[in-house]
Amino acid sequence: MNNNYDKIANHYDTLSRLVFFKSQVNAQVNQLQYIPKDSSVLIAGGGTGWILEEITKIYPSGLKIVYVEISAKMIALSQKREFKNNQVKFVNLGIEDFSTDTVFDVVLTPFLFR
Ligand SMILES: C[S@@+](CC[C@H](N)C(=O)[O-])C[C@H]1O[C@@H](n2cnc3c(N)ncnc32)[C@H](O)[C@@H]1O
């Protein structure tokens, strides 16, 4: 599948907030309270990784997160985020090409669209 987000990765968060204000951020942050402690979390299409920092504000440790992103630039930005002692595995693939034996407690697909 094509990756359309590399070209705008550095500016994505600014552009998103210009268009949607913080509605996309708030919709996601609102759901994070439902992540169980010490759980396994799959995030597909997490963008620049700001959501990792929001999750880390709630749980600075104990989570096992798999972060599947089709854009290599989004992955690179996400790897620089603060996720403290949570375990984060970054996978640069389209979610449709990702396979795993892991059973996830939570699956987040935050505004996953092309
Ligand atoms: C609209 S952006 C949303 C980014 C982030 N969730 C946010 O709310 O700021 C969609 C993200 O999904 C990624 N994406 C698009 N199609 C994908 C796919 N098939 N598999 C994994 N990631 C994908 C894009 O690279 C982009 O980072």
Concise description?
The protein contains 4 helices and 4 strands.
Describe the structure.
With 114 residues, the protein is of the alpha/beta class. Helix content is 31%, strand content 20%. The chain has a single domain, classed as Vaccinia Virus protein VP39 (Rossmann fold), CATH 3.40.50.150. The protein has helices at residues 12-20, 23-31, 50-58, 72-79, and strands at 40-44, 61-68, 85-91, 106-108. A 4-stranded parallel β-sheet has the order 3-2-1-4, with no helix packed on it. Helix 4 links the parallel strand 2 (61-68) and strand 3. The N and C termini lie close together (10 Å). S-adenosylmethionine (SAM) is lined by residues 1, 3, 5, 16, 24, 44-47, 68-71, 74, 94-96, 110-114.
Secondary structure: elements and pairs:
Blueprint: H1 12-20, H2 23-31, E1 40-44, H3 50-58, E2 61-68, H4 72-79, E3 85-91, E4 106-108
Parallel strand pairs: 1-2, 1-4, 2-3
The structure holds S-adenosylmethionine.
S-adenosylmethionine is lined by residues 1, 3, 5, 16, 24, 44-47, 68-71, 74, 94-96, 110-114.
